[in-house]
Design a protein that fits this description.
Helix content is 40%, strand content 23%. It has 588 residues and is of the alpha/beta class. The structure holds zinc ion. Zinc ion binds next to loops.
Amino acid sequence: MSAQPATTRDGSPAPKTPATPAPISQLMGELVVDLLEQTGLIPEAKIGVLREQAKHAPVVQVLIDEGLASSEAIARIVAAQYGLPVVELGNVGIDPIAASSVPLHVLEQVNAIPYAFEDDSLCVAISDPQNIHGIDALRLASRHPIALSVAASEDIANELGRLARTAEAFGTRSSLDTVELEVVDEDELDDLEVDDGISDAPLVRLVNSIIFEAAEDGASDVHFEPQSDALVVRFRIDGVLHETQRIPRRSAIGVTTRLKVLAKLDIAERRKPQDGRISLSASAAGRMLDVRVATLPTVEGESVVMRLLDKSKKPPTMEEVGLSAAMQEQLGVLIHRPTGALLVSGPTGSGKSTTLFSAMTEINRPEINVITVEDPVEYRLAGLSQVQINPRAGLTFATVLRSILRSDPDVVMVGEIRDVETAKISIEAALTGHFVLSTLHTNDAPSALTRLNEMGVEPFLTGAAVSGVLAQRLARRLCEHCKELYAASKEELDAARIPEELRHGKTELFRRNGCVRCRQTGYRGRIGIFQLLEMNEELSTLAARKASHEELERAAMVSGMSTLWADGIEKVLNGMTSLEELARVSTI
Ligand SMILES: [Zn+2]
C-alpha cells in the first residue's frame, strides 16, 4: 500500500502545484489546515496562527504542540483524509520482530513504528502521512512491502522511546547515539567486575539508561518501588512523581541489587535501610551525576530511591530563580558587603541552595576567596573551593567550617545550619570579617531569627550578624505552550486577596491546561516565591532582646517586607504560575 495522493474527502483533486512550487509538505500542511477549518474543531482565531506555523513545521506537530487537538483526534482526521486505517498501538501491541526490522534511527526520523507482519507486508504505524520523504526512507530501509496505518503521534513516540531504551539496555543501539555512563571511581569499576554476582550486561545497561533518561528529563529523584507484579520506576519532575516504566517482577531483584552494588551497599542486607552514593559520568553528554541512593525494606520488597544531582549544570541567575527586580537590587547590596550573613529559609526542596548559588555567582570574583561546605555539592562553580561533608570521615559542617575559617576566606557558604555548633561558628564568622551565606529550615523570614536564638546562638549576636533573610517556596511554572487565559470571578480575586491596584482592572488570569511538552500536567519548570527581610537597627534590637515572631514580623512589614503570598500573587498576575499552584505551596 502506498500513501494516498492528496485528494479531499469528497474526491475532488488536490490543489494544483503552482508554477514555482512551494515544498510539497508545505502545500499538504495548508491543505490540512483548510480541512480542519471546515471541521470547525479549531477556534477561528487560531486558524491564522496555525496556517503561519504550518509553513515551518509539520502541521500535525503544530496542532499538538499548540494544544489545539489531542494526538488521537488528529490521527483519526489524518487517517480519514488519506484513506488509511487507524491503529491503536496500545490495543494491538507491538511485535518485537516487526519493530526491529527497520533501523531505529530511521523510525525515529519518520516517527513510525512497525507493529506486525500481515501476509508478506510489514504493518507500520505513522503519524504523518504527508511526510513523503520519510515514507520513502521507510520503504528503502525495510525488506518487506509496507502497509501504512495512522496512529497517535504520542503513542508512536512512546513506543519509540521504549524501543530505544530496550536497544540501549541490550547494547544493540549503534555506538553513535549511545550514551555511555561510567562509574567514576576506578575501584568501583573493579568491584563490578569481580564479585557482584550480577555482572549481567543487559541489566547494567537498563539501570544506566534509566538513570540517564532521568537526568535527561530533569528528574530530581528516581524511585524503584516493588509492587506485587512489577518494579515500578517513577521520576520526580518539578516536584511531582510520574510513572515511567514497569520492570517485570523477575528482574526486580537484579535491578535493586545492581543499584546497591553501584552505591557500595551491602547487597546481602535486605531488611535494614541503607544509604550510599554513586558518581556517574555521562561523558558523551558532558554530564557529571552525583547520585544519592537510599534503600527501604517495604512489605513488597526492597525499594530504592535515588536523588540525582547534575553537577555539570550551571546555577540559574537571580532573575531566573524568580527574584523580582526590586529584590535583586536589595540582595545585590546585601551580598556585596564585606561582613554579615544572608540566610535563605524554607522547607526541604524549596530551592534554597539553588538560590544561594545564584547569589554566589554574583559574589564570586577573582580577587576574593570563596569557600563552601556543602552536603551535597549541587553545583560546581569555577573559582570556588567547595568541600563536601563526610560525617563518616569526621567531616561535619562544624569541623569543616572551623578549618575553612583558618584558610583566610572572604566569603563562606555553609550548605545548611542544622546544629548548634554550625550555627554558632557561622554567626561568629559573619561578625569577624567574613560574609556568610547559609540556609535554615524555617517557614518564613522572621522565624529564621527566632530559630537561631532557639538553637542557642546569643540573641545579640544574631541581631548583629544577620544582614538579611530570604524565605522561599517553589511553585510550578505554567507551561508556556498550553496555559490558558480565563476570566476569574470577583469572589476568586477577592479570596486570593489580590489588591485592586495590582489588578489594573483586569480580571483575566492564566490557568493550567496540558500538552505533550508538559506531560499533560500544565506545568513546566519551577519558579521561586520569595519574602525578603532586610535587617535594620530596629530589627537588630528586637532580635537582640529575643522579641517574639509576631513582633519581628510586624516590625519587618512596617519597614517594607511583604508576604510570600504577595510575591506569589505578582507571579500569578504575570502568568508565570496559577492561583491553584500558589495555594498549594503557600498560604495567605
Ligand atoms: Zn503544556
